[in-house]
User: Fold these one by one.
Assistant:
Number 1:
Amino acid sequence: MSLVQNIVIVDYGVGNTYSVANAIKYLGYSKLSISDEESVINKADVLILPGVGAFEEAINNLRKRNLHQVLNQQVLVKKKPILGICVGMQLMASFSEENGIHEGLNWIEGRVKKMELPCMFPVPHVGWNDISITLKPPLFDLTSTNANFYFDHSYSFNCEEEYISAFCDYSIKVTAAIQKENIFGVQFHPEKSQTNGLKLFRSFFNSIN
Amino acid sequence: MLKKRIVANLVVKDGIVVQSIGFKKYLPLGKPDISIEFLNQWGIDEIILTDISASKNHRNPDFKSIRKAALKCFVPLTVGGGINNLDQIKELMHNGADKISINNSAIYNPQLISEAAHVFGEQCVVVSIDGVLATNGYKVFDYINQKYLEISPAEFAKQMVSQGAGEILINSVDRDGSYLGYDLDLINSICEVVSVPVICCGGAKNSNDFVEVFQKTKVSAASAANFFHFSEHSVNTTKYNIKKDINVRLETFADYNNTAFDENMRIKKKPDGVLENMLFVRIEKEII
């Protein structure tokens, strides 16, 4: 296990960056930074795009800091692995319908839509839910069956099934994790899912040389 | 399936976690970072940290102490107390809060709720309502001015959800620290009128109260403060007992199947012979 990867948590103003950093540091990774600077992001071996925030605010913040171009270069051209968390994953979609229609990074073709559920299912979807894994490597290499993770969202990622690596049941099938080549995203918060979350980070970093 | 959440509510007064009784009496318990570290290890589902002295003294949330407390918190941390503008919320999120809880500002500056939801998403905004039973029904209680308002908690909750609140935390002033069980009527009055998750608080004595509130109301989460602090294995034994009837998260190596509980749902001492054998049971620490 290598602990010297250069991990950069992309700071675009509205994420819970400190929580994510705490969880990763706990696992022993020492080269970890939280940054919105191009020079720092360019040197990363692996990127994390955290999220707690509304889509519009998040994507506007990325653009204001010119991070969408920096990330496009690192992720689409240089093929660096990136993990998006919650709204960080939703940013990877083509469009979001949160407070109007907004364009995303369009890395994984998909649309972020408000969850429409029967009335006994409160929205936002908040709490610990079991996930069903459809593609284990690399994110769920260390995850046991029926593992639960902490979710907190009102909108969900709708895309082709080939990109979905896990989903959860909340009266509808909710996309819990997506992946496409070097691009990964989780709707839940691994940094807030205790041991199961820490295992996910470990699996992800282990998969990177 | 989504699990019901068992939440710990830490009330902080002047930097110290306190036991609150009837919103009037406070007994000191310890430092927030220590309480959070333990609750996290015991497998709590979520922690709400409420600083009751911030708004009262017109000061900012204590960012430094929250930063310290969040360091070992790998479950969601909701922070409340003294929040009255967006910059403070941003600062809290940068210091380890995952959600924020707004109480007094929700009454006097409801605009803040919609602004916060617009920037941070509604899932980040918890509106905390203190309810009290007055002669003509339940009313919203303003703890800063120690008086109740004319509006009912249910009506107020409805307004807050339309402003963008993502969760409602309903706290019973009458049951606070009373160990009399949750105020089911108050909780139901909220659950019936809002579509967002509701967290209840106030009056839990032991796991039976949690089971009752989950069976008789539609709450998504039930919280308690005091009793988690005062009994052995409190979080895990509570969850173990709730899990017989309700779908909750229980992840522990401890096995309570052969454990006896007393009438207060506290663990009874095992026979000496059993305890002696347990000395030789080796539990490997899980390495991630």
Number 2:
Amino acid sequence: MSRRALLVTVEIATPLAVLAIIWIWTAGAESYYFPPLADVLSAFGDTWVFERFTSDVVPSVSRLAAGYALAVVLGMSLGVVLGQQRTLRRMATPVIEFLRAIPPPALVPFAILVFGVENDAKIFLIAIGCVFPILLNTIDGVAGVEPTLLDTTRVYRIGRLDRLRYVVLPAAAPQIFAGMRTSLSLSLILMVISEMVASTNGIGYFILQSQRSFAITEMWSGILLLGLLGYLFNAIFTLVERRILAWHRGARAGAG
Amino acid sequence: MSATASPARAAPRLRVPDAALPGLGVLAVLAALELVVRAGLISGRFFPPPTDIFSALVRQLGESAYWSAILHTLEGWAIGLAIAIAIAVPVGLALGFSEILYHATRPIVEFLRPVPSVALVPLAILVYGTGLQSKVFLVAFAATWPLLIHTIYGARDLDPVQLETARSFRIRRTDRILRVTLMGAVPYIVTGLRIASATALILAVTAELIIGSEGLGRSINIARQGGAVDEMYALIVTTGLLGWALNSLFAVGERRVLHWHPSQRREAS
């Protein structure tokens, strides 16, 4: 067997082996906390396909999408401005550094006070948690654009908007995407946190509720769903990133 | 960029010394907030003026409960992070060093990594209860991933010539791992550590908020439920300062440890 074939075999066989071990171990262990994998999978089918899909998954994912979109728009527009204005950037840096250091969950009570327990508070929480990686990466990316490029656009009298559209944003794109990737995994975490405190629906709410009513298999099915969602979002993101950054030779390395 | 401004525009402009800009920015934001709240644009019930928050913070400084909350948060952070280091660095080095191990575990790592750590909160409550153990479990789980990924990348990103050289000198396997792979991965590990530390703090506070283990997160929740808005914001500011302090600490440490590395040279100049 060639080395490459060996590696591919190993890559496929190991996860299957691990799954099999978990399957056999949980089936025989009779552990209260770790129910048999078969039960978890059937609970997964019963719960999520598609009984609770519209009542919990759709609200969760739409809040996540709204919060993430808000963070992308805010982070990028603010980042472009601060990246180009050195004076403003110097003034804003300590404020951003401080706000960024606040763990987003600490803002849950603030969000509840200001926005109530409805959707707005959750979207705000996701947005505020996700904005900083995007903002900081955009600032760095925009501020780090090759000065020669900027001087060239100035020599050719290329307008501000065109300069932004064709020079600054593409040059900063790899770094902006790195920030967006970090934010993506954060957004899922924040979605769950926001639903575990003061909520009436959503995946996070379901998991916590299942635990409180000692429905352990259902709880595991929710955890499994979150894992699948995280994996799915990551895969979609990688596809989009590869497409947009296809021209960039570091795209694959940066995607890591 | 400002260098290109025409002299006619630059001349009458007030020159502010560059070093004063950060302080000026902070003052401007605080003053704006103070004005907005005092003018009644935001209800003081939801967001007290910064001066009130500051005086609440000063009041808290004298209370032992405040300091013990900080210590409890830091305790969970430190133990969890230490466990994460103990797991992630050796495992990451092994996975980065051995091609077969890397391929065998890649799908598993790729699947587990995006699982949001907070999804395990209910499990932690079930298995470990609501005390320190739960918090440490969550912190360790969340902090392990960034560190593991960075260590793997660091170990794999090694210049092949260095490894070949070590091999041609017949340096033993353990020495190769420790002296070549580990040293080559250190810049990545240090970056991963900084990210892991931030994640660890987030999870510590989250655990305190949701599970109710002792610490800043629980104090924030108690302050909110008691309607002590000033205290709540003072505590939130505290978590921000704590995060900022830890981050700066790691940034300084990074510069110390990596003074030999090219990435640090540019910053020094």
